[in-house]
Specification:
Blueprint (H helix, E strand, L loop, with lengths): L1 E4 L6 E4 L1 H27 L24 H17 L16 H21 L1
Antiparallel strand pairs: 1-2
């Protein structure tokens, strides 16, 4: 059994291993989806989208401000999340231990920090 504390209400509850694994899977999938949405909509300024064949070439001018550090952060975030992703693509397991809640919080912070840096620059 795993003891979980709700970050919103502070209530503590217990989950069996299957329930805990399901909860982690949902959070990981959401984190990955947020990284993808950020890259598509904000970092790449909607130039290329997953569900549209057209390229929005007039939006390319805002992409010149990307730094090597921005790209490295995105690569790290996307690679970490994709190792655990169970959604639209199933990665080959690399044997990594599941991400802890602290690891997931760090990922959310990394994405928030990059998003703020990009918005401040633009």
């Amino acid at each position: 059994m795993r003891e979980i504390k709700c970050p919103n209400c502070g209530k503590t509850f217990n989950l069996d291993e299957a329930g805990y694994a399901d909860l982690l899977s949902q959070v990981r999938d959401e984190a990955f989806d947020r990284w993808e949405a950020f890259v598509e909509q904000e970092l790449l300024n909607g130039v290329v989208t997953r569900h549209d064949r057209r390229m929005q070439t007039q939006k390319l001018t805002k992409l010149t401000d990307l730094t090597d550090g921005d790209i490295a952060t995105v690569n790290l975030g996307m690679s970490i999340e994709s190792r655990f992703m169970t959604g639209h693509t199933s990665p080959i397991s690399d044997g990594s231990a599941p991400m802890s809640p602290d690891d997931l919080n760090a990922e959310v912070k990394r994405l928030e920090d990059l998003r703020k840096a990009i918005h401040d620059r633009r």
